[in-house]
Amino acid sequence: MTHPGPATLPLLAHTQPDAVVAWRHDGPVTVERFLGDVWRLAAGLPDGKHVLNVCADRYRFTVGLAASLVRGKISLLPSTHTPETVRQLRVFAPDAFCLTDSPACDIDLPQHRFPDFEEATPSPEGCAVPMIDVDQTVAYVFTSGSTGAPMPHPKTWGALVRNIAAEADRLGVVGTPFTLIGTVPPQHMYGFESTVLLALLSGGSIWSGRPFYPADIAGALDAVPRPRVLVSTPFHLRTLLAADAAVPPADLVVSATAPLSGNLAVAVEAQLQCPLIEIYGCTETGQTATRRTAETAEWQLMRGLRLSVEDGKVWAHGGHVETPTMLGDIIEPTSGDRFLLHGRSADLVNIAGKRSSLGYLNHQLNAIPGVVDGSFFMPDDEQSDGVTRLTAVVVAPGLDRATLLQALRERIDPLFLPRPLIFADALPRNATGKLPRAALEELRRTLGGE
């Protein structure tokens, strides 16, 4: 355990041993119980320095993270757990082991099963909150393979604490006994920050489950006291509204991982009877800006962050961003700490001298009445015979191809109409609502097109 000092910060913001840090199906978990579980798990962890924590139960994941921290271990947070990703992790960290709470886990690493802590055991350290060195590397977060070869980005405790402090301030949850319900996995950077660290470092609590279907989300909201915060994605929120089911009110909705339309934001606020705050960020910088999407298209930078433009590239620096970092997005600074986001630089499309972005095209496609879900993408062979052709995959059970193409012609330049336009029963989104490029390519090969 790191002893208190000027270069340490606490693991928890909670100050009372009976404060609630988590909610499980059998009731609340106090700080005293949590710390006892942390030290019991920490005592039995293997010697390896690197941990792949794949616990599906959010409380167990959080205990595993805290136990790793007090033992000086580093959590590995890749974007997927495919066999190829695991092989890459073994090369990167040969001493890595997998912490799991599933007997069916088939990840090819030495496995350590999360113990069955049925009874509360007092922490050997009492209720003293562990202090963590600000320079300690907490995790390596890996960039998504969809934007290039996975690359590790170290996250130190000090930078993460500053990031979460700025988020808590912006969301207005400081000093509030809120409960976080997350539809995103804690292993994803967004879920890691906004469903785990936000609770630990701001005095809130987490819901241990990960509701996915609308009925599960409604059940989770009903299972915890107010104030409650739903941390979700545009995909999950769109599915929730489409279900047209009774959903208990929330006190705040947070969304990230993909751009959210203003219309969807307005509908979510009406359904859940609370504000919706959208977060913009990336693996390299963490959370960078927020906006209330129902009211404005402008983003506001997190506390202490600044943007600078050099040679047409936008750099983020200050605040929790420890070194100037280039952003891979098309950003238009407006005034002060505000900016507009026009999509990813890699999403730019140029056809016959006309330019657009996949983000803009996707927004127009999903705004068409009757479209449940849809996405444009550029196939691997898009430059065949020197002709750029976009593909779109869409879930629109009540529309035919001619009707949908006519609706698109009214919204986008005909040069960007998809060829082919593929209809599917569902899109192959992952747990955070993103569409891996490889999955889209496989869907295109399987379903074909025009």
Care to describe what's here?
The protein has 450 residues and is of the alpha/beta class. The protein has two domains: 8-342, ANL, N-terminal domain (Rossmann fold, 3-Layer(aba) Sandwich); 352-447, GMP Synthetase, Chain A, domain 3. It is built from eleven helices and 27 strands. It has helices spanning 31-44, 58-70, 83-92, 157-171, 189-202, 214-223, 234-242, 262-272, 358-366, 401-409, 437-447; strands at residues 8-10, 20-24, 27-30, 50-53, 74-77, 97-100, 111-113, 131-133, 137-142, 152-156, 179-182, 205-207, 228-232, 252-255, 276-282, 286-291, 299-301, 306-310, 313-318, 321-326, 329-333, 338-344, 348-351, 354-357, 373-377, 391-395, 421-423. The chain has an eleven-stranded mixed sheet with strand order 3-2-12-11-13-14-15-16-17-22-21, with helices on both faces. The longest helix has 15 residues, at 157-171. The model is unreliable at 1-5 and 382-386 (pLDDT under 50).
Summarize the structure.
The protein has 450 residues and is an alpha/beta fold.
Low-confidence stretches: 1-5, 382-386
CATH class of the largest domain: Alpha Beta
**Which topology of the largest domain does CATH recognise?**
Rossmann fold
Q: Please give the CATH architecture of the largest domain.
A: 3-Layer(aba) Sandwich
Number of helices: 11
For the secondary structure, the number of strands is 27
Instruction: Average the pLDDT over all residues and give the rounded result.
Output: 89
Task: Give the class from helix and strand content and strand pairing.
Answer: alpha/beta
What characteristic shape results from the CA principal axes? globular
Number of separate structural domains: 2
Measured as a percent range, the helix fraction is 25-40%
For the largest sheet, list the strands in their spatial order: 3-2-12-11-13-14-15-16-17-22-21
State the fourth-level CATH superfamily of the largest domain: ANL, N-terminal domain
Distance between the termini: 62 Å
**Portion in beta strands:** 25-35%
GO molecular function: ligase activity
Protein name: Acyl-coenzyme A synthetase/AMP-(Fatty) acid ligase
Pfam family, one: AMP-binding
Domain AMP-dependent synthetase/ligase: 118-291
